[in-house]
Predict the 3D structure of the following.
Amino acid sequence: MNRRSALKIFGYLPFMASAIELFAQAGRRLPAHHTEDGFRNIDPNFEERSFTEMAPWVISHLTDLFSRAPKVDIPREYNDGSIYSLSKPYTVTWIGHSTVLIQMEGKNILTDPVWAENAGPLKFAGAKRVSEPGIELQKLPPIDIVLISHNHYDHLDQSSIEKLADRNPKTKFFVPLRVRDWFEDKGIRNVEEFDWWEGTTFLGLKIICTPAQHFSGRWVNDRNQTLWCSWTVLGKKKLFFAGDSGYGSHFKNIGNKFGPFDLALVPIGAYEPRKLMKPVHMNPADAVQANEDLEGKKMLSIHWGTFLMTDEPMDEPPKKLAEAVTQKNLSPENYWAFKLGEVREW
Ligand code: ZN
Ligand code: ZN
C-alpha cells in the first residue's frame, strides 16, 4: 500500500467509526418508554407537570408531612382472617389504600402491601395513615404472590415486605424493571422483575407486567430510575391491578389484549388539585372510564381512604364514584368501594 492510499483509509476512519456506532445504536434501540436516563410515559396526551408548577403546592403541604394526621372515620368490617380457611376459589379483601388480598384458584395474591403508619422516607415524615389496615398482616393466609406496582412509599413499604418475606420464604415478589435491586439490598431474592408486556407463568397463573401512567422515586435523586406498572393475572378467571395511574390509552390497549377482566382493581383517590394530579392520578370519573376500556366486569376501588396525600376530603372518592356510575347509566353493583377489611367473592 502506498502512502497516498494509506492516508485515504485514515481519512475515512472517522466516518466508518460513526457508521458502526449508528449500526450498534439501531441494534439496541430502546423501547419507547425507556430513555438513557430513566423511564417515561408514552401516551401522546400525557403532559408532565413541571417542577415550577408543582413547587407552590408541595411547599404549602410540607408541614403536613411532619404533623399528626387526623384519624378519619372510613367504614370498616371486622376481619380476623378466619374467613380464609373456608377455601372459596375467588375472594377479594380491601386492606387499605392499594393493599388488596385476592384469592384466586387456590393462590393467595397480595398487591402493594403497606401496613406502615407513615408512608415516607423518614420514620416521622411522609403521608400519614388516617385509618387502620382492614386486617393485621400476621392474620393473612400464607401469601404466594406479591405484586408491586412501583417504588413510591405508599406502595412499597420496607417493613411490610420484610415481614412477608420472613413469614413465608416461598412468597414470590413480582416487580417492575429495576425494582429488584431494592429487594436484593434487603437480602430478599425471591423476586421476578419485568418490563411492560413481559411476564411468566407461576403456580399455574399467567402474570404479566402491563403499563401504567405514573412516575417513580423514593428520594430526590432517583426520579423515574425504576419502572411503574400494572399487573394482569390470567387463570380460569382474569384479574387486573392498575397500580397507580393517570388515565391514558394503555387501559384500552390492555383491555383489547387481555380483557374482559372478571375483576379490576382501579385507583379512585389522590386527585386534587386536579390540574396538578391529572397526569398521574385518576379521579373516580377517570377510573370508571378506565374500567370500561379494560372491560372490567367488576371494579374494586383502591388508593383512597388511607393516606393523607392530596386535597380532596378522604371520604369523597366513593361518593364521586357513585355519581360517575349514575351519570353513565352503569350498574352500581359492578362498581365496588369496600369497607376496610371487607371480603367479597368475585
Ligand atoms: Zn405513586
Ligand atoms: Zn400512590
